[in-house]
Amino acid sequence: MDLETRPVGRDELYAYILSTRRVFGDPTDEASVRLEASIVERANSRTLAAFDRGDIVGTLTCHYFDMNVPGGRLALAGVSDVTTKATHRRRGVMSQLMERALTEAKEEGQPLAALWASESGIYGRFGFGMAMLQENWTIDRKDTAFALEDDSRGEIRFVEPFEAAGAFAGVYDRACRLRPGMIDRNDLLWEVALLDTDEFRQGASAFYHAVYEEAGRVDGYALYRLDGRGQQLRVGELVPATDAAYSALWRFCFGIDLMNTFRADNQPMDAPLPWMLRAPRQLRRATGEEFWLRIVDVEAALAGRGYATEDRLTLEIRDPLCPWNDGVIELEGGPDRAVCRRSGRDADLTMTIADLAGAYLGAVDFSTLARAGRVAERTEGALRRADAMFVTDMKPWCIVQF
Ligand SMILES: CC(C)(COP(=O)(O)OP(=O)(O)OC[C@H]1O[C@@H](n2cnc3c(N)ncnc32)[C@H](O)[C@@H]1OP(=O)(O)O)[C@@H](O)C(=O)NCCC(=O)NCCS
């Protein structure tokens, strides 16, 4: 199939977004398409489209983000709008767009790429690894009692929608600074996070914006909706900068009148709530793995993070799609600095680039990957040393959906 692949111009953005929305089954009314097109335009995101005789048949967008990695922060290509028109599936359209997008990310100095995968079977072949687990929670009102008394001393108040970004941003930065996987939010990303059109409400109420304040300072926020039909409260984001704020905000949400159930998707794996409830088994927890990471430039990515222990390891990385990563590298690093360079030495560990992505933010250790048959230990003790180096204080978590 002879396709033209290129970025779209400003005058083609509407058709581009319309095409993605048709594939996902999202609303295609003019207002929704224009809103999304204007966001992509203002973000100056890289758009790539495949054209068949002038028609858009495939799309892929890369956003410019900065993401926390353990002990640092790196440029990330946030991949979204990955679509191929139903008439053109399984003919290599996505593969063509993805290969070009990864090459461009490398050229643009983005050592990492990531996406929220609609299905888990798609992206492993492109070197993306399951790099973060999250939990989706639901709980009935009768089961929301806490084991311990609340000792928070602050107060909760609502803020108006137009005040929310200003009130939330400081907490977000404090809470997320040390969390691997979190993406910096600029003004535009706050605008997107707080978008409140019918499409986002999905039959529920407008957002409620609540903040927890102690000693005159905002220490946490909750963003939620009420779904009157199911009498369900849906937490969109609950972000605390202190333990007191976390406890107070959950107690506040569980205390909202008329709600029978409470739902919170995308909670971090190390969230304390299950340890705070009197009957924790009643919290229904489903684990998801939607966030997939691609290491675009292995030397820059490994040199750009910190490590829990000082050590030196040689890693053989297999990456046929991005051959500049393929081969043996030597990583020498510790808590404050790291260097990574090509090496002629024998490898201590062998793995694919996707496996390295799994361990990179701290979602999984190398020993587990080895037991899964994915990582091979060539030097005795190397797995244990790699685990000790890559371990993170906090589990990776990202609340920016793109
Ligand atoms: C997912 C999607 C973009 C794939 O596009 P495509 O152009 O058909 O993909 P390609 O032809 O380049 O496929 C490349 C490979 O991935 C495989 N693949 C594609 N979609 C897959 C899926 N959903 N599950 C598992 N494997 C998939 C193909 O079989 C092919 O494998 P091969 O190289 O062994 O032959 C397309 O099916 C689509 O638009 N789906 C709906 C929207 C969506 O889910 N997008 C992803 C958002 S994160």
What does this structure look like?
The protein is an alpha+beta fold. The protein folds into three domains: 4-110, Aminopeptidase, CATH 3.40.630; 135-288, 3-Layer(aba) Sandwich (Aminopeptidase), CATH 3.40.630.30; 297-351 and 365-390, SCP2 sterol-binding domain (Nonspecific Lipid-transfer Protein, Chain A, 2-Layer Sandwich), CATH 3.30.1050. Helix content is 28%, strand content 32%. The chain has twelve helices and 19 strands. It has helices at residues 13-24, 30-43, 93-107, 161-176, 187-193, 198-201, 243-254, 273-276, 298-303, 353-360, 366-371, 382-390; strands at 4-6, 46-52, 55-69, 72-84, 112-116, 128-130, 134-140, 155-158, 208-214, 217-227, 232-240, 261-268, 284-288, 291-295, 311-318, 327-333, 338-342, 349-352, 376-377. The strands form three sheets. The chain has a seven-stranded mixed sheet. The longest helix has 16 residues, at 161-176. The model has no long low-confidence stretch (mean pLDDT 97). The structure holds coenzyme A. Coenzyme A is lined by residues 23-24, 82-84, 89-95, 115, 117-119, 121-122, 125.
